[in-house]
Amino acid sequence: RWMILFPPEVAQVLMYACCSLYFGPAAKLTTVFLNLMTLTLLTLGAGLGRRQIEYHERLAFVQVVDEKTRRVQMEHRLEQLSEPPAHTDRRDDELTTSDGATNATGDLFRSVEGGQSEENLEQLCQLGYKEHWLVPVADLRPLPNALLGSGGF
User: Fold this and answer.
1) What's the rounded Cα separation, in Å, for the pair 3 and 48?
2) Is the pTM of this model over 0.85?
3) Which of 56, 87, 119, 127 counts the highest number of beta carbons within 10 A?
């Protein structure tokens, strides 16, 4: 960012020099030269100060990012150490795919599909309420003046 400010800094010093030499009094060249040197030193000092501030801000940002990265890595390690790995007899390819054949929910759905009993349907409804994918009828309240649908297919 500081490179963007370099041309205006040089331009202000040169503009002062040109304007004071062209429009200024000819008898006081020493005053113009001293003012030009003072402006140059002030501009140089301000520019270097801005550059130092930007350098330290960037350095502080890098340190904060590095500290946050290390903190996240340590928290991840601690979480992995605190949770014991789940041991199972199934192979890795069986763990990545689920066709419903390996869990109790899958058995429940298959028993309802086969039409085995109304008790299984009741168990499926209880599971739906528990997992919040089945909404109780009491929670459904359509708006009295709202149009729910129209037309046909």
Assistant:
1) 11
2) no
3) 127
